[in-house]
Amino acid sequence: MGIPLRVLIVEDSEDDALLTERELKRGGYDPIFERVETPETMRKALLNQIWDIVISDHSMPHFSSPAALAILKESGLDLPFMIVSGTIGEDVAVAAMKAGAHDYIMKDNLTRLVPAIERELKEAALRQERKRAEGEKEKLQAQLTQAQKMESIGTLAGGVAHDFNNILTTIQGYAQLGMMSLKEDDPLYENLKEIQQASGRAANLTRQLLLFSRKQPMELFTLNLSETVDNLMKMLNRLIGEDIAVDTHLEPNLWTVRVDPGNIEQVIMNLVVNAKDAMSNGGRITIKTENVEIDKDYCNIYRYAYPGRFVCLSVEDTGIGMSKEILQNIFEPFFTTKGLGKGTGLGLSVVYGIVKQHEGWINVYSEPGQGSIFKVYLPVSSEEAKHETKTEIISIKDIQGKGERILLVEDDLGIREFANKVLTSNGYEVLETSNTQEALDISEKKSGDLALVFSDVVLPDKSGIDLVEELLSRKPGLKILLTSGYTDQKSQWSVIKEKGYCFIQKPYNLNDLLRVVREVLDK
To answer: 47: closest CA among 72, 64, 65?
Structure first.
């Protein structure tokens, strides 16, 4: 049995084609032939079959080797093109080689045919390997460039979010204080309420920026995503409306994942809302959960993936779909195809950030007019799912102070004054300062009377963590509460978790501040 070889032969003489076939068999090949002799039949053969090589006569009644070579180039296929002729002259042969033919063989010297084919097949294989390697290099370079761009935007987003969080803490806080001093029928009350609601929306926007930049602290729990989707269905149905049907295919024996519940719910809601917006005239959304095992072959295709067991959450719609150009940009923040005022462009970038923060990845499949499917892959946890317990309802009286003395360390004047007013008007005695040195001086004088240190993490002279560690060395039983508008390395979040310090994220409102302070003091 010879070596299989698929040969498209452009030849008007069946006898000459048989001579070529016989020579190939003598050289150790087992050729599969198709003979064509017109441009139309050659084009059809190139479309309908995979070929290893094209062998063409030079001159035929209705065709020629230059015309056949042009058709091969037109097809975009990189195949060896050999001319086998009894009439070709040297000048014509040289011109054919310059045009792209790989060799020419005289029909009276067919002994050259097999060695020439062997050489050209090796060259073709090398060209294909180089092309594949170059394509892979370009793909990896594009992935690296995209990752660097997303990381740069994430760093910028984290810094912007910090500044906004400081400002919003002051805006929200004073709006609340103003509302508390007015009756609800006062016209100013409604104005302050609008300010508070607007600042709340702004706070949510900064939270999305932090989620995108993967700098939002996470509280991880072991969950069953099928149960999470099931619990969200009532809310999702209200978001979607009556003109869109929702199907769920939830794996009953789904593996568990270790995730931040709020963040994962945000992923599901964002994907569903995105699917809804793609179906202005109604349609169908399918939400699916399944267990999958990722192998090395999959990872060779998707280089950002890694082998192991994963839970796959998919959201599919029957909407308008997306072009390749749109798909390249959908995870970038503020990129949107919706009309003006109909979206922030953060929905999918938030999904991307959350999934990356959970050490997973997301794939998207879409074509114009064919709908879209988003597939989120999250690594499996070995723990069993834990169900959330209902939180106890607490009244305002339960979170007020009992005369405890608090050292407040905050360099932002607006936030410091707001926190001071809230705490002093709710039963606490407050000593305030803007830096660590003054805080240490106050502690030296009042250390025996301090019940709690409430400090920003990022201070002008030293960090809040350095401050509390110094204070704890002087008074080991001192209660600690830290805060920050940062959630990246500046907040030293990993140190805060390791030390077990209590933490409240900016922007915080009046009730959150009182509740957390009371919880820390009562521990």
So the answer is: 72
pLDDT at 341: 45
> Can you tell me the distance from the alpha carbon of 404 to that of 431, in angstroms, rounded to the nearest whole number?
11
Q: How much is the pLDDT for 315?
A: 96
> What is the mean predicted confidence (pLDDT) over 85-101?
84
DSSP 205-268: HHHHHHHHTT-S----EEE-HHHHHHHHHHHHHHHH-TTEEEEEEE-TTPPPEEE-HHHHHHHH
What does the pLDDT read at residue 389?
Answer: 46
Tokens of 33: 């032939």
Cβ atoms of residues 69 and 25 within 8 Å: no
- Residue matched to tokens 């959150």: 512
Token code pair at residue 505: 């994220």
Q: Is 84 helix (H, G, I), strand (E, B) or coil?
A: strand
Reported as a single tens digit per residue, the pLDDT across 7-24 is: 999 999 999 999 999 999
Distance between CA 117 and CA 21 in Å, rounded?
A: 13
Average pLDDT value over all residues in the chain? 86
CA distance 372 to 348: 13
Q: In whole angstroms, what is the distance from residue 10 CA to residue 58 CA? A: 9
Residue 56, pLDDT score: 95
Give the phi and the psi of residue 319 in degrees, each rounded to 5.
Answer: -85, -155
Give me the sheet containing 283-294, strands edge to edge: 244-250, 283-294, 308-317, 372-379, 361-366
Q: What is the pLDDT of residue 391?
A: 44
The set of residues, in sequence order, having a beta carbon less than 8 Å from that of 392 and lying 6+ positions away, is none
307, 267 contact by CB (below 8 A): no
CA distances from 454 to 47, 387, 439 (A): 74, 32, 11
Kindly report, residue by residue over 433-445, the tens digit of the pLDDT.
Answer: 999 999 999 988 8
Q: Residue 345 above 60 pLDDT? A: no
pLDDT band for 144, please (50, 70, 90 cuts): confident
Mean pLDDT for the stretch of residues 29-43: 94
SS3 459: coil
Tokens of 97: 């080689």
Measured CA to CA in angstroms, residue 337 lies from 208, 278, 351, 515 at distances of 19, 10, 17, 42
* Side-chain-facing half-sphere of 424: CA atoms under 13 Å: 11
The C-alpha atoms of residue 377 and residue 363 are separated, in whole angstroms, by 8
Query: How do strand 221-223 and strand 257-259 relate by DSSP bridges?
Result: antiparallel
Alpha-carbon span 469 to 448, nearest angstrom = 17
Burial status of residue 397 (CB atoms within 10 A of its CB: 0-12, 13-18, 19 or more): exposed
pLDDT at 203 over 90: no
d(CA 261, CA 6) in angstroms, rounded, equals: 57
pTM of the model: 0.48
